[in-house]
Automatic annotation (TrEMBL):
This is Phenylacetic acid degradation operon negative regulatory protein PaaX. Residues 107-176 form the Transcriptional repressor PaaX-like central Cas2-like domain. It comes from Janthinobacterium tructae. Residues 20-84 form the Transcriptional repressor PaaX-like N-terminal domain. Residues 194-282 form the Transcriptional repressor PaaX-like C-terminal domain.
Length: 309
């Protein structure tokens, strides 16, 4: 049975802040398809995207562009097409979505990781591509040619260096304040590297949009499986958009109060309410075209600190 209040909320959200189709496909792949092995028939994907107002033509254009960009590969079986996350893109998917579902518990040990590219160490094209990826990964520009982060992930950094073919060409070091030397506190570099006001505004907008939905679902918890899937997908998509601009700083270096904490709790509560019914819809959709479509992997239930199985 459809919840009419949910129907109205979904319609209002899609009208006021419609997601871009290519970005929404990325969200649904990461949220719903990767936990099932990362492959889906195009017909099933068309069916999943229909409630968002994404038509067949727009979807085909989106997956074609994602394939061109190296995220997806396509296979044909007669007249049918399937799309799969490419192996080299899977690790990037997993790291990006780990940021979404993991609790905000990164603590600061007082150090920074610096990536230093002296003049002439790499070409202009390499430097531009590396800058884009480091900024996307949350690094701040300390000064020309020097990027830093106070809670760097070594595995993710190595992947960036390897994919951009600059391994061994840059200096990467771990630095702390030097005792007995007059110095500005390293924590002050946060203000030099990032303007967190836009990130805070993004979290506040997310809270304003989704807090009424949580209240609605708590008051009227009956909804059908497709509604649950649409809500879970819009929730994940909106939260992901804010997270992509969040440098993921340690909690000790964040302003107080930090709206990301409330936003995470809100996303967690909504996801826990909708995930099971959403899974019913996803599985039913996939198995209409492929009776052997798998269930989610066990690690799926670790999201947001643990989901009911």
């Amino acid at each position: 049975m459809k919840n009419t209040r949910c129907t109205a909320w979904i319609a209002d959200f899609l009208e006021s802040d419609p997601p871009r189709s290519k970005s929404l496909v990325m969200t649904i792949f990461g949220d719903a398809i990767v936990p099932r092995g990362g492959a889906i028939w195009l017909g099933s994907l068309i069916e999943l995207l229909a409630p968002f107002g994404v038509n067949d033509r727009l979807l085909r254009t989106s997956v074609f562009r994602l394939a061109q960009e190296g995220w997806l590969s396509s296979q044909r079986d007669g007249r049918r097409s399937a799309y799969t996350i490419r192996p080299e893109a899977l690790a990037r998917f997993e790291r990006a979505y780990r940021r979404i579902y993991a609790p905000l518990v990164v603590h600061w040990d007082g150090s920074w990781t610096l990536v230093i590219g002296p003049a002439g160490s790499i070409g202009a094209a390499e430097r531009g591509a590396l800058r884009k990826e480091l900024l996307w990964a949350g690094y701040g520009l300390i000064s020309p040619g020097i990027f830093g982060h106070p809670a760097s992930n070594a595995e993710a950094l190595e992947d960036i260096l390897v994919r951009n073919e600059v391994q061994g060409k840059l200096y990467v070091c771990h630095t702390t304040e030097l005792p007995d030397v007059s110095t500005r506190p390293l924590r002050d570099m946060v203000g030099e590297c990032w303007d967190l006001s836009e990130v805070m505004a993004g979290y506040e907008k997310f809270i304003a949009s989704f807090q009424p939905l949580l209240t609605l679902l708590q008051e009227a918890p009956v909804f059908d499986a497709e509604q649950a899937f649409v809500i879970r997908s819009l929730l994940t998509h909106a939260y992901r958009r804010v997270q992509l601009h969040d440098p993921q700083l340690p909690v000790e270096l964040l302003p107080e109060p930090w709206p990301g904490t409330q936003a995470y709790a809100l996303a967690r509560d909504l996801y826990r309410i909708t995930h099971a019914a959403a899974e019913d819809h996803i599985l039913a959709t996939l198995r209409r075209e492929d009776e052997q479509a798998p269930d989610v992997e066990p690690w799926f239930f670790e999201r947001f600190g643990g989901l009911n199985t």
